[in-house]
Specification:
By secondary structure, the chain is of the alpha/beta class. About 40% of the residues lie in helices and about 20% in strands. The chain has nine helices and 13 strands. The strands form four sheets. Strands 3, 4, 5, 6, 11, 12 and 13 form a seven-stranded mixed sheet that branches. A two-stranded antiparallel ribbon has the order 1-2.
Length: about 300
């Protein structure tokens, strides 16, 4: 088979995907192929090059020295190809669908309000948005970008930090008028502390006092699946809630919520990242457009 009969860039792209995503199945989902087709493509590539690129086992794939060299050079070639197309004006306009998964607070306060501006800037793009505080498998869900709050687990995914926000304890003025305003951490024992019930939620509320940091258990009569639901419960006067500062800054400014125990706030914060698949600059224009837009528009720090 001559070189003119081989889609070398296509083979290289699939091979790079296999390495970046850690397996044939994940690469197949990303490329719209079957795992067997991806495996056969890599085998054909090895046969054409006359070198073994991967050592396969039932649990993992391990790059050979030749495979490592091809991956490193291949990722640079694909990035250079993308750059050449942008410079030549070929596909210089992002187009297609961008699938986004975000936690509910970020979605409600940033992603949804910013969507019109994003789509006005990129009229040939469409957004497919899912809001959930559950951590999803972005490969399984065929998600392009997932916005996640809190520490990131080690993975083959890439991440772009969008900022960080500190936490604040808040309550509605009507609740505080009815139950009193807590002046010290010990006062929380007499209050209704609303809590989250999703798996990644931290247990208890950290507070700082003279004798050392403590964690107060949140033992209220209601839990909720996401931060925005907790905010609504607090606004309804049900109890105290500990929420990201960006969620409640407008409510505090408008007098709908009041921050309490600020002098005991330990100043802890949550980082927010946009997580995506791709290395070495090899990223679809549609995904790069959203990542750059979020980095430009989102202001979490100092909230």
């Amino acid at each position: 088979m001559g070189r003119s009969d081989v889609n070398r860039s296509g083979e290289l792209e699939v091979f790079v995907r296999v390495i970046e995503l850690g397996g044939f199945s994940a690469a197949a989902r990303a490329c719209g192929m079957t795992p067997s087709a991806v495996s056969k493509l890599v085998s054909r590539l090895e046969q054409r090059l006359g070198a073994r690129l991967l050592n396969r086992s039932t649990r993992q794939l391990q790059l050979t020295a030749e495979g490592c060299g091809l991956y490193e050079r291949g990722a640079r070639v694909l990035a250079a190809l993308d750059e050449a197309e942008r410079c030549a004006g070929i596909q210089s306009t992002p187009r297609g669908k961008v699938r986004v998964n975000a936690n509910v607070p970020f979605g409600q306060h940033f992603l949804l309000p910013l969507a019109p501006l994003f789509l006005e800037r990129y009229p040939q793009l469409t957004l497919d948005i899912v809001l959930t505080d559950a951590v999803v498998d972005i490969l399984e869900q065929r998600t392009d970008v997932a916005v996640r709050a809190g520490p990131l687990k080690s993975s083959n995914l890439m991440a772009r930090k969008l900022g960080q926000t500190r936490m604040r304890i808040v309550a509605a003025p009507a609740y505080l008028a009815r139950r009193g305003t807590p002046r010290a951490p010990a006062d929380l024992a007499a209050h209704n502390l609303l809590d989250a019930n999703y798996a990644r939620a931290k247990s208890g509320w950290p507070l700082r006092q003279a004798g050392g940091d403590i964690v107060v258990p949140a033992t209220g009569n209601a839990q909720a699946s996401d931060g925005e639901a907790l905010r609504q419960l607090a606004l309804a006067g049900l109890g105290l809630a500990r929420l990201a500062a960006f969620q409640v800054r407008d409510d505090i400014a408008a007098g709908r919520l009041q921050a309490v125990l600020e002098e005991f706030n330990p100043g802890d914060s949550e980082e927010v990242h946009a997580v995506y698949v791709g290395q070495g600059g090899h990223l679809p224009l549609r995904v790069r457009a959203l990542l750059d837009f979020l980095a430009e528009q989102v202001r979490l720090d100092g909230a």
